[in-house]
Amino acid sequence: MGVIASLAYPRSDFDVSTDLYARLNSVPPGEKVGAVARAALDRLGPSAECPLYLAALNGALLEEPPPFDTDEYAKIYHAASKDPQWMAISLITNAEREGDGAKRLWSLGACSSDREEQQLLKRHAVDESRHALAYLALLDLSFPGTVSPAFRQELNALSPGYAMHQALVAVAGSPYAKPPSVDDFLQMNIAEIRTAIHHLMQRQALAEHCSPENRSQARMIQQSLLRDELYHVAYTAALIERKAQSAARNEVPALFSKRFRDFNLITTEELGEKIFDCNVACCAKRPSCRAKAAPAPPADA
Ligand SMILES: [Fe+2]
Ligand SMILES: [Fe+2]
Questions:
Q1: Which ligand is nearest to the CA of 124?
Q2: For residue 64, what is the domain's CATH number?
Q3: Structural domains counted in the chain
Q4: What is the pTM of this model?
Q5: 123 alpha carbon – ligand 1 mean position (Å)
């Protein structure tokens, strides 16, 4: 069975045990990005070795080590997350970002001419749409009554409410209404790995805010978030591997390094403002921010 076939849904065998969370959490800073990528691919089984992807990732990490995989980053997050108001806003920002990501994926999926790729992007969009609500559920469980009932009701609109039975349609005017490229999947892969690392930090931080009676429900939501994010890392890696097989030898490694460089710059800027998940308005300000729609530069750029 090929890597892409092994991505088929339902994915009940894509298991994420509590043990995996503890294992990833104990990986030292500087090694988490690689550990997350390997853990995600491991869940797909032995067919998902993705040697071209892993070689390109390792090369990019050496050239452009990400600030979101450092001790300093974790310490700044940990200090900020002690403030309940900061933490509550961060959950709302996460919900906004997931909902926005879902819409981008829905457009990309609608424009893909590859049936498998289309289904994977559709499932990804449905996951992110659900995640917007999951972060709001974590807000309810960890900080009950923090926002007014009317505002809380409005927040539900952050999720576009996608479901698999709906037909994919490109969102009118979206820069993502275009066929997805390897560049899109590289940027998604980096973003998903960063989300998984944020997840590890957030899970630890939320445990300090959530009341004991709500903790097990919050944990169940977090477990399914981690499973989905690792799945997003895995399927984008598998698509990158497939595209790398037919690309020029240095194209994917060079582009991976370039996109890490972009991501690292944004992360460093955000860190100065204690932003860990920039919001939609913030992305709109920066042409380079989450520039999935930007044309791919030449491989040697
Ligand atoms: Fe997500
Ligand atoms: Fe994701």
A1: 2
A2: 1.20.910
A3: 1
A4: 0.88
A5: 11
Q: What are phi and psi of 254, to 5 degrees?
A: -65, -40
Span from the CA of 194 to the centroid of ligand 2 (angstroms): 10
Separation of 198 CA from ligand 1 center, angstroms?
11
Establish if 295 belongs to a structural domain: no
Residues 265, 266, 267: CA angle, nearest 5 degrees:
90
Does residue 217 belong to any structural domain of this protein? yes
CA atoms of 53 and 98, how far apart (whole Å): 25
Report how far ligand 1's centroid is from the alpha carbon of 61 (Å).
23
Beta carbons of 41 and 50 less than 8 angstroms apart: yes
pLDDT band at 4 (very low <50, low <70, confident <90, very high): low
Render pLDDT for 38-65 as a digit per residue (tens, 0 to 9). Answer: 999 988 876 678 999 999 999 999 999 9
Domain membership of residue 299 (yes or no) is no
The answer as to whether 195 is a domain residue is yes
Q: Find, among 51, 168, 178, 11, the residue nearest to 102 by Cα.
A: 168
The angle subtended at Cα 24 by Cα 72 and Cα 198, nearest 5°, is: 50
Domain range for residue 168? 5-285
- Which residues have CB atoms below 5 A from the ion given as ligand 1? 98, 128, 131
Closest ligand relative to 189 C-alpha? 2
Cα-flanking dihedrals φ and ψ of residue 28, to 5°? -65, 155
